């Protein structure tokens, strides 16, 4: 042990990391002490509310994060436009629900189709949302990434940024910049749910929240099974490990890559529809911040690592929800927390929580 | 009395579960030409990487004229006087041939960024001398006409020579060449062999090679070390290595003397 | 034959989708009005029968051209019949798609369906416009006809102009007899003549001095913005173009520079009002310090990670500036007004003065950047960009040089920020969004990484052009995004790729000088 300590080089990097780490711990400790000591803490009911919302949004982040991690694992690039892929899913789901609500549901004209067949409406909304996102994920790869396969890393990244800007603005021009609201069926109306008594207050467990959370978990399980058990999953893992070897084994690498984008898009689309159902308001910009946060989550869990993305997503959701309250900070600074986590992870543990240490470069 | 340029003492390098270099000891004398040979995966390049600072060995020390260098950053090691070339050529592709060499001289130059902006006499003089020296090196390897060609446009042989010139640009005391004749035809190989000898004789540089071409190894080396599965299994001059049974079994094969097995058996049967 | 048809089909589909997309985003309306301006019949707006036709024909002709070009791929050697059929087929496909769409929306509109809640560009008037004010079926037929005709014409036209054809051969011989006869070498030679160079410089200098007086405050503002973006581009060029570090949060340094200057010179919120030139210096210092703080811990991150982290940093800075937490310092979302302005000859800086100052700074910046590039420092940076691991093994202290690049870039951004705040007399958090970072990055990349004329060109194209095409400003970002993708695929080296310095001539000239020394 002493031997190891002796061998640690006192590099500038190390000193800097130590300094930052200590400063951070001190700051966090001080804030928490302040908050608890001042007695201005929130009641148990508020904490529960934070916890619930953290889990719900964590689930959505996880789904989007999986998309990033899948693409990174296979192409070693950040799909900067992934947030926009989610946004398109949100729009698609919206249109489905609008269409349903416009159609009369019964002869009596007293109920619209949306409420007459809520299950069908929702299923269709998710299928169409996921489908549209999957399609755009696929097109994105074919148009903006495939021609740049061999190029130095900077080039596809810029192309991705360009695609992201393009999609955002296309949505804005097509549908207008105004915020729209999701038309949930009455069954799943926002703001309704089970009331849970906590002490002498009550906390609402929203139907939309529970719905989103359960769906997220189901999709994550589904993806896990796909990757671990199916032939496609095996091909994906093979291509991620070593493209040339996979090609030599008879795997159609291009097709696998396309399918990866389809799946990653579909998950993002589902998350997008969920977002609309749970949060209600959205416009063309809805994918941007969640996109970056989901990427943070993917890095937090270990980029390229699927369980890592799931873990990272849930963790980020919780940290984001509970963090401001814990530290006595303004809720405005919620996004700052996410970015700060990103920076800290990359400084102290760039391989993420579950990722393997990046192998040293082969000379 | 010749000093020991490089001393590798009980160096071990591990990657997770794999031990790439296992307790290797090596001594390279000043002004000598030595080779490290062995099957693929034996740990030769890993050893090179440990000496030049790319990797930090888990155990052991590496000494450069009695100074410990294991774990030092690569630019410090280059500054001390160890330069190298690479198995797969790694030139600065977008830069021209002469620019590659100028970068090679980086550690022997001093101009700061402020001086670059001011163009003070020290800067101008240093640049002029550097360019002059760069052209000398280009002449030395026969690439003067291609000085302004971007490296990625150069033919393969020219790229190899350029990488060598870049390594020489830092006035190294020890030059480490990783498979310098890979991909060369017999004539080019012979030229490279003569070149290596000339380098040592005229510039008094210690040279260490990794090579697979046995003509080169046996032709230029004074001392050969053989690695297998990370361990040193033999060491000696060419004659000793060629007749070492262990080396023959692990790497060289019985056909070293130019005779195939069939021919040998035929000879025996005829006798 | 099959190939041509397949290609025709694919192109027809693509153009069909593109055209319908244009209709949905309202681009056809804007394009027709531009064409109207060009053609001179802008007033015919109300009787909308006229304009769409001209726009449509032009667009379909372009589409036809492109079909024709691809139908005539060199390896296929199609003959007239193939080309004709390919053009016909793709025109048909596009015509059917667009016509069908027109029929659909025309028909639904006639039945009273209002699209505007979901597709704001399809109001009643717009739809009438798009179907030529005739019944939907007729409109559909018109589209088919226009597309087929112009597509065929386009395809045939390309065939006529393609290599091997009579027309093409005529053009080539013409070129050989005239243009090629111009001795380019001689032209270059004249440029290198000292007197010519000086005369040129004087002319350009005079132009730069007088233009700001002449072209009015609107152009001073636009060109001033271009100049600021050139400065920002030069700074980012050192970080991204020379040393290859992809920094996506460059706006943070810009913001810090601007806000430092504003805080130090404006009467509110702190009433420090210090000497302006000192304030500029301090602004550069704070930006540089920020560069150091963010740079040290993250410098060793890999490319994509560095990009995202710096992006996060840029956003953090903006959010913090706007937040309640720091409102006492920065005035929060309201921004800081009455930022300090310098005096010149007793009067406050006019926009002409600002323009001159910015021009000077741009020249200084170009000078510094060029000198840095052609030096040991510049070569060290580029070697880091090319292959960091090998660069370090070749003796370059990569950590030190990477930080140096970051600090220099941050300093330049700080300077630009201070000037930006001063010129606008105002600075607010919404001036420093992510888009600014993206804009500057595009200036560098689209211009050409590491290329100084590229940065200047990039700034003009990305900041100057949109001002010229103000009617299209709604579509600016869309075009931007598309341009980025297209540039990366078609011309990743940029509009004016960097050229490597030439040393051989230098040596030859040096050799000419030497014999003198020897003989003495």
- Assembly state: heterotrimer
Cα distance spanning the termini of chain C: 78 Å
Indicate the CATH topology of chain A.
ABC transporter involved in vitamin B12 uptake, BtuC
Strands of the widest sheet of chain A, in order across it, are: 1-4
Structure in words:
The complex is a heterotrimer of chains A (363), B (271) and C (520). Chain A has a single domain (44-348), classed as ABC transporter involved in vitamin B12 uptake, BtuC, CATH 1.10.3470. Helices cover 71% and strands 4% of the residues of chain A. Chain A has helices at 2-7, 12-38, 44-75, 82-102, 113-116, 118-145, 154-175, 207-229, 231-241, 243-248, 253-279, 288-301, 306-327, 334-348; strands spanning 180-181, 193-198, 201-206, 281-282. In chain A, α4 (82-102) runs antiparallel to α6 (118-145) and α6 (118-145) packs across α11. Mean pLDDT of chain A is 85; it is low at 357-363. Chain B is built from 11 helices and 10 strands. A 6-stranded mixed β-sheet of chain B has the order 6-7-8-3-9-10, with helices on both faces. Chain B has a 4-stranded antiparallel β-sheet with strand order 2-1-4-5, with helices on one face. Chain B starts with a strand and ends with a helix. The model of chain B has no long low-confidence stretch (mean pLDDT 89). Chain C has 3 domains: 2-177, no CATH class; 183-215; 220-496, Orthogonal Bundle (ABC transporter involved in vitamin B12 uptake, BtuC), CATH 1.10.3470. Chain C contains 22 helices and 4 strands. Chain C has helices at residues 2-24, 27-39, 50-71, 80-110, 124-130, 136-161, 166-177, 184-192, 194-214, 216-242, 251-265, 276-298, 303-322, 327-330, 351-373, 376-386, 388-393, 398-424, 434-447, 452-468, 476-490, 504-519, and strands spanning 336-337, 343-344, 347-348, 426-427. Residues 46-50 and 516-520 of chain C have low confidence and may be disordered. Chains A and C meet through α2, α7, α12 and α14 of A and α12, α13, α19 and α21 of C.
């Amino acid at each position: 042990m002493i031997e190891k300590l002796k061998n640690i080089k006192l590099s500038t990097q190390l000193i800097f990391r130590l300094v930052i780490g200590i400063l951070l711990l001190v700051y966090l400790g001080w804030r928490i002490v302040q908050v608890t000591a001042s007695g201005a803490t929130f009641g148990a009911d508020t904490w529960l509310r934070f916890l619930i919302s953290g889990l719900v949004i964590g689930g959505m982040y996880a789904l989007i994060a999986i998309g990033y991690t899948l693409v990174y694992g296979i192409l070693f690039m950040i799909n900067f436009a992934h947030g926009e892929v989610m946004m398109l899913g949100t729009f698609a789901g919206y249109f489905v629900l609008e269409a349903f609500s416009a159609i009369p549901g019964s002869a009596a004209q007293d109920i619209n189709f949306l409420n007459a067949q809520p299950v069908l409406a929702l299923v269709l909304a998710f299928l169409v949302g996921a489908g549209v996102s999957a399609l755009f994920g696929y097109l994105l790869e074919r148009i903006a990434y495939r021609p740049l396969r061999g190029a130095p890393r900077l080039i596809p990244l810029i192309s991705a940024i360009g695609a992201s800007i393009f999609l955002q603005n296309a949505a804005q021009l097509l549908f207008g910049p105004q915020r729209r609201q999701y038309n949930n069926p009455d069954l799943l109306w926002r703001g309704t749910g089970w009331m849970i008594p906590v002490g002498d207050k009550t906390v609402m467990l929203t139907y939309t929240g529970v719905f989103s959370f359960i769906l997220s978990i189901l999709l994550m399980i589904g993806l896990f099974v796909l990757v671990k058990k199916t032939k496609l999953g095996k091909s994906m893992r093979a291509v991620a490990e070593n493209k040339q070897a996979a090609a030599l084994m008879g795997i159609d690498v291009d097709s696998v890559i396309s399918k990866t984008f389809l799946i990653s898009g579909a998950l993002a689309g589902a998350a997008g529809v969920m977002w609309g159902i749970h949060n209600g308001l959205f416009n063309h910009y809805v994918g941007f911040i969640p996109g970056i946060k989901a990427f943070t989550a993917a890095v937090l869990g270990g980029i390229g690592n699927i369980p890592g993305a799931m873990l990272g997503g849930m963790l980020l959701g919780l940290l984001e929800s509970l963090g401001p309250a814990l530290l006595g900070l303004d809720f405005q600074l919620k996004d700052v927390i996410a970015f700060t986590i990103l920076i800290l992870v990359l400084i102290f543990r760039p391989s993420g929580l579950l990722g393997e240490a990046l192998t040293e470069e082969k000379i | 009395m010749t000093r020991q340029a490089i001393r590798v003492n009980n160096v071990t390098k591990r990657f997770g579960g794999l031990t790439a270099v296992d307790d290797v000891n090596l001594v390279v004398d000043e002004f000598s030409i030595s080779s490290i040979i062995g099957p693929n995966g034996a740990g030769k390049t890993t050893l090179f990487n440990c000496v030049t600072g790319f990797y930090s060995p888990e155990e052991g020390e590496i000494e450069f004229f009695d100074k410990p260098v294991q774990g030092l950053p690569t630019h410090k090691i280059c500054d001390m006087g160890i330069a190298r070339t690479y198995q797969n050529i790694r030139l600065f592709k977008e830069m021209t041939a002469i620019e590659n060499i100028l970068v090679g001289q980086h550690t022997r130059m001093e101009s700061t960024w402020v001086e670059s902006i001011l163009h003070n006499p020290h800067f101008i003089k240093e640049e002029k001398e550097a360019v002059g020296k760069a052209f000398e090196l280009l002449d030395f390897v026969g690439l003067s006409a291609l000085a302004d060609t971007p490296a990625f446009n150069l033919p393969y042989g020219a790229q190899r020579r350029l990488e060598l010139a870049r390594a020489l640009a830092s006035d190294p005391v020890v030059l480490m060449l990783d498979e310098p004749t890979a991909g060369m035809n017999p004539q080019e190989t012979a030229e490279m062999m003569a070149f290596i000898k000339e380098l040592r004789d005229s510039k008094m540089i210690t040279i260490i090679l990794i090579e697979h071409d046995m003509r080169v190894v046996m032709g230029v080396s004074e001392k050969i070390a053989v690695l297998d599965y990370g361990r040193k299994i033999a060491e000696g001059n060419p004659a000793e290595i060629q007749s070492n049974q262990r080396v023959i079994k692990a790497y060289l094969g019985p056909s070293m003397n130019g005779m195939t097995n069939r021919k040998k058996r035929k000879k025996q049967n005829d006798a | 034959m099959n190939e041509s048809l397949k290609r025709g089909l694919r192109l027809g589909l693509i153009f069909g989708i593109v055209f319908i997309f244009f209709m949905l985003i309202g681009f056809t309306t804007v394009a027709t009005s531009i064409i109207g301006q060009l053609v001179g019949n802008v007033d015919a707006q109300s009787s909308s029968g006229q304009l769409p036709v001209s726009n449509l024909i032009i667009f379909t002709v372009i589409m036809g051209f492109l079909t024709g070009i691809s139908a005539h791929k060199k390896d296929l050697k199609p003959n007239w019949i193939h080309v004709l059929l390919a053009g016909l087929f793709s025109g048909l496909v596009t015509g059917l798609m667009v016509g069908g769409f027109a029929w659909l929306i025309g028909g639904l509109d006639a039945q009273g369906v209002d699209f505007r809640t979901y597709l704001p560009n399809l109001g009643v008037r717009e739809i009438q416009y798009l179907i030529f004010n005739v019944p939907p079926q007729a409109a559909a037929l018109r589209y088919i006809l226009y597309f087929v005709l112009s597509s065929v014409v386009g395809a045939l036209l390309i065939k006529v102009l393609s290599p091997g054809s009579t027309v093409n051969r005529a053009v080539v011989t013409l070129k050989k007899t005239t243009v090629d006869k111009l001795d380019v070498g001689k032209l270059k030679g004249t440029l290198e003549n000292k007197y010519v160079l000086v005369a040129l410089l004087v002319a350009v200098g005079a132009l730069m001095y007088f233009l700001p007086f002449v072209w009015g405050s609107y152009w001073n503002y636009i060109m001033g913005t271009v100049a600021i973006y050139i400065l920002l581009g030069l700074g980012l060029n050192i970080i991204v173009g020379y040393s290859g570090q992809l920094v996506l949060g460059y706006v943070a340094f810009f913001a810090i520079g601007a806000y430092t200057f504003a805080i130090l010179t404006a009467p509110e919120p702190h009433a420090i009002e210090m000497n302006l030139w000192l304030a500029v210096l301090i602004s550069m210092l704070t930006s540089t310090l920020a560069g150091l703080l963010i740079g040290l811990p993250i410098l060793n991150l890999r490319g994509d990670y560095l990009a995202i982290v710096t992006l996060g940093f840029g956003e953090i800075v903006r959010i913090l500036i706007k937040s309640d937490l720091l409102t006492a310092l920065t005035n929060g979302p309201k921004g800081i007004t009455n930022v300090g302005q310098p005096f010149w000859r007793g009067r406050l800086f006019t926009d002409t003065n600002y323009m001159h100052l910015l021009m000077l700074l741009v020249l200084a910046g170009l000078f510094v950047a060029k000198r840095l590039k052609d030096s040991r420092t510049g070569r060290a940076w580029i070697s880091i960009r090319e292959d960091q691991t090998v660069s370090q093994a070749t003796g370059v202290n990569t950590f030190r040089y990477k930080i140096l690049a970051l600090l220099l870039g941050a300093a330049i951004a700080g300077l630009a920020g201070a000037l930006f705040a001063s010129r606008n007399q105002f600075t607010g958090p919404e001036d420093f969004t992510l888009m600014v970072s993206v804009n500057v990055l595009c200036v560098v990349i689209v211009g050409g990484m590491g290329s100084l004329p590229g940065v200047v060109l990039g700034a003009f194209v990305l900041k100057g052009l949109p001002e010229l095409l103000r009617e299209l400003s709604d579509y600016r970002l869309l075009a931007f995004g598309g341009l980025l993708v297209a540039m990366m695929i078609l011309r990743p080296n940029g509009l004016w790729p960097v050229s490597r310095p030439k040393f051989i001539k230098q040596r030859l000239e040096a050799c000419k000088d030497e014999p003198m020394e020897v003989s003495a």
